[in-house]
Amino acid sequence: MRVLGITETCDLGSLYQRLLAEGHEVQVTISEPLAAGTMAGLVPRAHDPEAGLRWITEAGSEGIVLFEAAGFGAWQDQLRTRGFSVIGGSAFGDRLEDDRAYAQRLLAGLGLPVAAVTEHADVGSALADIAARPRRCVFKRAASAGETFVGTFDDGSDVAAMLAASSSAPDTPFILMDHVDGIEVGVGAYFDGQRFLRPACLDWEHKRFFAGDMGELTGEMGTVASFERSDRLFEATLALIEPQLRAAGHIGYVNLNTIVNEGGVWPLEFTCRFGYPGFAVLEPLQRQAWGELLAAIAAGEGAPLATAPGFSVGLVLSTPPFPWSRHEVDSPIGLPVSAEGVEADHLHWGEVGLAPSGPAAGRLVTSGLYGWTAVVTGTGPSVAEARTAAYARARRVRAPNLRYRLDIGDRLATG
Description:
Helix content: 25-40%
CATH superfamily of the largest domain: ATP-grasp fold, B domain
CATH topology of the largest domain: D-amino Acid Aminotransferase, Chain A, domain 1
Distance between the termini: 44 Å
Structural class: alpha+beta
Largest sheet: 8 strands, antiparallel
Strand content: 25-35%
Number of helices: 13
Radius of gyration: 21 Å
């Protein structure tokens, strides 16, 4: 099988490495200049997307194009009309993820309870909204912009102050969503263009930078996941949107983050692409190799997903400038990293590559835009056992200024 990864920052680097180890051919294109060193010397590069697509065409039915990020759905749909086998998303998936107000209206129409949402094109209208109806709320801009601010004041004054402080910035549409208390849990599954592959997974993300859920929101600091006992939540949420995904020709992973409380299941937001580190956290529980799984998704035949019981705990091991990027913070790369004694099945390299020259020539070094250096995983029949295994592996990873949260899964393990 031939796989072309069309990427911005090569977030699925360890997946490409797995495919290569399985004997498949892989090439990637990376559009972000500051990510040029990610997976350098580890995963072959295509000169550009069109060169990669010609390479895929030569493979005939054995060729798959894999998109990592949202925002390329229309291109994916167009490639499918040209006969390419494409896994990643769709224009409809992009809208579900980026147009949060639209997604909430769609879910409400399917009978799910949704939090009150107001849409705004400028700061002034949002400030007037909060003044007219003071409440704890959450600011969310389009998912592709990566902006979320969770208010903690019951009158919304912190969100209002944040908006006022940024009122001179260019306005782009955003929403204010009423805050909902409860347990945050995601439900996700692979969609093959016709139906979801079962079982779905459940995941509990830890997004704040510091232990105890303090500090700024990051992309992700760690996740607990399981394929067990997911049917009830799946049937109440993701299963309802299957007809719309089928009509749109969506092919790829879909996750819906929710809040569960005594009032029901409250959907928050979609991820309609491979999540990072989600794909790595699920990998140890998937009994199919990535090549076999991608082939099953591309075939569109609804093959069941072979999974292992128990839990997987994934820890994000980061280096500066995370949680910022090198666009904002000038942070060095090219620093040596190692993971001696960590089993390959539970080590998922991220923004690393082989140094072409200098003091670390030929060695694995840090690279990339964000400082997403690696993810390590642990599995077990309980959350406690899985997290113990994950942290034992994390202690074997070495990198300058490496950091990670020490409480991933604690509340689930004890509560």
